[in-house]
């Protein structure tokens, strides 16, 4: 670790953090007797904490964000140069990096046409929900306003995003929720619903969406919001036939298809966007985390030209346009960082690397499953992989959540940071999650799975 702070400086930082910082997703009671963890520096795939301990980061910043790794000077320079020239102007006007990145981004998204800038995944999804509601008022007398979401999917932290969230423990204690959001069943074949009696599970799971639409009334449903691969709900890859049937259903009932790419977007699954693995043609796509690899805050809502045209078909109506603003969507650092981030992915062939290293990780996890009976299912796409832990393979009873977290803790002690589903779906927070940066090497992948191997042996025997 370069430029390490001295012991007095570190002690001051730790105490300032303990006294004043409210951390995300953390119970602070233990900090009364133990120090909070401070991450001091990152380079490539590795980070160092306040004690100087090195960790291999297998979750890209903890929440699937740092796709091109830490310490990228070229991104920092691109941001610096842009901030000196122009740091901000409201999104009612354009900017050079905003225009250029939109062009570059849409080149990777055939069929999509417009980019709306904002500053977080939650906000991007809120924008999409607002568009659906406004279209309902403009075109359908307000009736076609309902938004369907899927059990186990997650779309953000705001009240409306939680209203569209299929993770009960994340939603708990934050109601009452925004009306008009309706849940459809998940598509995890390993946890197939009790009423599934056989056949093609992917088509069956998609048909459950149609049943919900018919129950609610097709003339009341405006959009369906789905992750291409469910992330925090257990790294759920869609079964064969699922997405084809979903798209058929949306077309049949004139329902907008909104794909939430906040996690999968910009290379995570080995293609630019997760939906491109499945031949899907969405109406709206939201993205955030990997767009600039965490070097600047940026999120985007991307739409087709057809959706865009719905907001400019009557210029004489002063209420007809999308009356929305995102203050920090006008920051130029985000698109400047995103342009350089995308250049790095292209020039370093990181999509190809993601496919190759993802194949290696899946192979290693399957090998671990042969060795450790506690691994019930392995699933993933590219460098987005999961291993579901069970108490019994015969019954598929989920492993004890405390033991799952103990595996995460053991890996941390070994200097490898992995993730796990946590406070998401009651009784099913039992999936280990892996999402290393797209720059991962074979040695990195092997170090990650070797740590898991040792941890499983110690925790489960």
SSE topology sketch:
Blueprint: H1 7-20, E1 39-43, E2 46-49, E3 54-57, H2 60-64, H3 73-85, H4 96-107, E4 114-118, H5 121-140, E5 146-150, H6 159-163, H7 168-171, E6 181-184, H8 201-216, E7 221-226, H9 242-252, E8 256-260, E9 284-287, E10 299-303, H10 305-309, H11 333-347, H12 350-371, E11 375-380, E12 385-389, H13 401-413, E13 416-417, E14 419-420, E15 431-434, H14 442-460
Helix pairs in contact: 3-11, 4-11, 8-9, 12-14, 13-14
Write a structural description:
With 461 residues, this protein is of the alpha/beta class. It has two domains: 7-66 and 349-460, Aspartate Aminotransferase, domain 1, CATH 3.90.1150; 74-347, Type I PLP-dependent aspartate aminotransferase-like (Major domain) (Aspartate Aminotransferase, domain 2, 3-Layer(aba) Sandwich). The chain has 14 helices and 15 strands. The strands form three sheets. Strands 4-10-9-8-7-5-6 form a seven-stranded mixed sheet, with helices on both faces. Helix 3 (73-85) runs antiparallel to helix 11 (333-347) and helix 8 runs parallel beside helix 9. The model has no long low-confidence stretch (mean pLDDT 96).
Name the features.
461 residues; alpha/beta; Aspartate Aminotransferase, domain 1; Aspartate Aminotransferase, domain 2; 2 domains; 7-stranded mixed β-sheet; 4-stranded mixed β-sheet; 15 strands
